[in-house]
Specification:
The structure is a homotetramer. Chain A is of the alpha/beta class. Chain A is built from eleven helices and 14 strands. In chain A, 35% of the residues lie in helices and 18% in strands.
Chain lengths: 338, 338, 338, 338
Amino acid sequence: MIITLKKNAPQEEVDRLYENFEEKGLQVNIIQGANFNVFGLVGDTSQISDRDILANEWVENVQRVSAPYKLANRMFHPEDTIVNVGGVKVGGNEKIVIIGGPCSIESKEQIVRIGKEVKDCGADMIRGGAYKPRTSPYSFQGLGYQGLLDMADAREETGLPIVSEVMSADKVDEFVENVDLVQIGARNMQNFDLLKAVGHINKPVLLKRGMSATIEDWIMSAEYIMANGNPNVIMCERGIRTFEKYTRNTMDLAVIPIIKEKTHLPIIIDPSHATGDWKLIEPMSLAAIAAGADGLIIEVHDQPECAWSDGAQSLKPEKFKQLIEKARVVAKAVGRDL
Amino acid sequence: MIITLKKNAPQEEVDRLYENFEEKGLQVNIIQGANFNVFGLVGDTSQISDRDILANEWVENVQRVSAPYKLANRMFHPEDTIVNVGGVKVGGNEKIVIIGGPCSIESKEQIVRIGKEVKDCGADMIRGGAYKPRTSPYSFQGLGYQGLLDMADAREETGLPIVSEVMSADKVDEFVENVDLVQIGARNMQNFDLLKAVGHINKPVLLKRGMSATIEDWIMSAEYIMANGNPNVIMCERGIRTFEKYTRNTMDLAVIPIIKEKTHLPIIIDPSHATGDWKLIEPMSLAAIAAGADGLIIEVHDQPECAWSDGAQSLKPEKFKQLIEKARVVAKAVGRDL
Amino acid sequence: MIITLKKNAPQEEVDRLYENFEEKGLQVNIIQGANFNVFGLVGDTSQISDRDILANEWVENVQRVSAPYKLANRMFHPEDTIVNVGGVKVGGNEKIVIIGGPCSIESKEQIVRIGKEVKDCGADMIRGGAYKPRTSPYSFQGLGYQGLLDMADAREETGLPIVSEVMSADKVDEFVENVDLVQIGARNMQNFDLLKAVGHINKPVLLKRGMSATIEDWIMSAEYIMANGNPNVIMCERGIRTFEKYTRNTMDLAVIPIIKEKTHLPIIIDPSHATGDWKLIEPMSLAAIAAGADGLIIEVHDQPECAWSDGAQSLKPEKFKQLIEKARVVAKAVGRDL
Amino acid sequence: MIITLKKNAPQEEVDRLYENFEEKGLQVNIIQGANFNVFGLVGDTSQISDRDILANEWVENVQRVSAPYKLANRMFHPEDTIVNVGGVKVGGNEKIVIIGGPCSIESKEQIVRIGKEVKDCGADMIRGGAYKPRTSPYSFQGLGYQGLLDMADAREETGLPIVSEVMSADKVDEFVENVDLVQIGARNMQNFDLLKAVGHINKPVLLKRGMSATIEDWIMSAEYIMANGNPNVIMCERGIRTFEKYTRNTMDLAVIPIIKEKTHLPIIIDPSHATGDWKLIEPMSLAAIAAGADGLIIEVHDQPECAWSDGAQSLKPEKFKQLIEKARVVAKAVGRDL
């Protein structure tokens, strides 16, 4: 950690800071510059908050040299983490996984029917929302627990693992019992109580990136889950909020090589939320595969215009099938199976 | 609601849509344009999701004419809502309220001591965090329930109402029992389960704007609380995330006149989080008052450099006192008391 | 164009507006709603500015139905524009073009040497900056006119067309004489005098997207060039500015299918500026090809650590060659040649 | 400057870098950390580009300790710069200046008429656009040179200095001859050829912040003008581009204390462009004054609904007069005259 001090800082203040860091077991190197003095701290600085040091009025600037995450850090865990989701392996050089299904579970009949369709198209897992985060209190809020039970029937009928989003800590048990991959949605990426709760379970977690989360914030949220005991985290990019209006969000594909460099976790892409427009899903899916994604999660509905939510970004099964076929060719082109 | 249809949409599709809207009790007006046809829907469209209509591949565009919120909407509730927080009135033409206190409650002694200091400076309420949303799992997470009890002692000793942030629905009861104003933090602005939970209580709610929430998203979150039964919502701007690096966030003061135009709710400003830099708090506080804010919430610590969190954006009591004195003069200049 | 009027607008004001639009040859349809009245204008509204109508205090909202661009609009020009750059065709189903070369031309020897190297790697054109837009006045500003002459030698020696950025209208003649493709940089995307100037030349233009330009702004800048007489515009995405800090910019690949849907112009991608990090260039290039890009423009330098500018985002020739080979395989996977 | 090196960097590479910096006259301090080594450079690093050092693959990170600007830097020029615009002083503790006038000059009659009105309201200078940067090539582009001549008549008739925007280097002479304050618009903030051109004149420059310019970028653009010989730069905030849709831009008032801390230049605020909505101009103007702004530049039109551009954000004279009266009271409250 590098701390820049104002040149006019009183000597006693400089000494106090120096001793304070030494007491914490850190080695302090001082560089005298023309306009500033610099402290270089060597040792484990992960327990020190840069913002707390900034509180000192003689401190101009604080910069971290090492990343603030440890368990997720590739530097201390060089080999890829491969997450097993009900038998389907995600990450490393495993087969690229395709997850498909409706935004919302609307009925047992619907989720079983669409579940079978996405399986026929070639999907590896089924997605579906039982508890729905909706911007408006007047929109359909999901079938709740019954939805999870309906979805478990879809697993029964298809043999595919299922993914669904948990929205509060008190429902985590329902998910552990019924689903194979527990999703944390973008709006809850920094709901730290929920992160701690899924840190204590023995089911893998799909962690979506928050709409305005930096990559570092996002990795820190994975670190929360891991630090609470659950190493099985899959990262999922779903677009960030920018000034652009033609798309719902801006899909940030550079995260794929970055997450792979900084961490050892798998990363999949959600082109449905990232674009908000079914017409853009296929090209963005192929781009994600080409950039090295470990999987895709895509909204599929057989009657998008009648869907209870997010019809605008849902693919019809025939288009989903076609997408998988094209994605398979691109995957092969970059040396991956799908 | 205005729906733009592609000119080449098949007639049967247009008819189907037309009937579909009529069945929902809406009156449909059709405008034939050169390149597009337009449906103008008249009636209550709040239950219709624009994104669901967009799912139809012949629909080019959907635009709302009326705002999607009702209970928070100034149009249907012209007079100002004045929220009573333990005897302190917020909003309308009431006295501007000043809330001060530490980021984190560190001990009973600390919160009582700082509570007395902020009272002496002229504050109307005390803030303090018992449950802390921290980006890193390795940072101090707050004293929890004990912190709330300690804070209740500060109220006892000062007579000032107290404000603290609740982070999960299962803790809401603790807050109802112990605090006067229940804060929803920026990271939980779209934690809809938590919004519903505080919608069911009879304590007022301080709703911070999410880091990337549009004003409309934010009002919709207030609508969630109100639709679940709690009309006492105070809006709080705390800065939005942008590309700028010199400040922690970008403080958006235009929200003050906008919230007052679109809704009837009070709005206060948090310059501590909005800037992240104690040096900027005073000028930004004066700006907020001049723009019409109903209050300020400011982090105050008597030893910022030793604070357990957010020292960099905490004011020392003497600077807080000075700020209040200057703010009082500006308030008078814009016709408000403080 | 859809104009929403406040319900309490005085009748004479409504009548005045109505007549005003009719005088402009527009047909006005009125829809009476519960809270608002709506004017639907039919006819050519491209000469009307939505912001001017908003100046009327009774107008709540103005929404365009048709896009504000005509010459660039796919709706009125369904077939792809294919731009011929010194014999190399860009767009449609033509071969994907690869443009490589240094950020700055440092000497005749350097640009000729690197030009030959990029040709050997398989590039179709050479890029190089003679006039350099640098954030600091103390950074190297480019060799200027001499640089263009040096670059013309590189064309002579390699037979490849050359691309360089023009920064002001008074230099346009130099470029017409010496380069094959005239680049407008991101910082000048809304330098309208420069857009008009390159609208009058008979050389094709490479139009980079501004750092905070919406896709519509960007297309409008293309429209400027086209409206002044030059139909040969190639769009180039180079990343937009967001809150993310791990990359220099956020590369927005959704623009590829969107530009192809909304316009008939070719689009190429600049992964060097979009990411700012040589390690990310290869995966982002493959992603761009998979998403349908018509080309790539990449910074290549044989000694990046000694480059006079932008070494951090420059590829060494051997890595550039490897990238082209991988890109060729991905291109084939999506049905394109490269 | 602090350079972080990968621990596994080969010794010869480390030595090479070390010598390279020493040759440039810099003193190099080395700190050996657990995971990284750090070079601390002492000396004048302003001629070194951080991005060029990053090109070295063994370099993990480069961080500046000192700001990259010198002439604009408050550290080397502690006293306030006060800019004299045709007799009106801007900055320091001078009277706050108010600049008003139409977006576009529409005729001699119009600019003289509105000029007199804004003078009667209490304005200190007149603004008006002769050359207009318009997003659409089909919008009114300004009267050009004739507009400047018309505006000079308004100065003649009112005695007030005049401000207008220059859009290209070849027109700078027209402005030197005819206007008192030469404006660089937001879209040209990094049009470096134009910055150099106005660096050579002896008229003061009003430098608007670019829509996505960081504060540092913006100061660097001022540095361009100053480094080319013109010390008379006034900074002008006009809002930045964010995801928010209710306002045209997001007004960033924290720049006021920051520009005053980092530089010695005056700063004024443009609430018209920052908000895009005449209803927001008054509260945002008062906020700017309270935060310490040295002036305001506001669009005023006597018939906004007929204005040839930007009517939506223009104030009528009576509202402008009322704003100035309120602003005067707020100015007094913060110890300034107006």
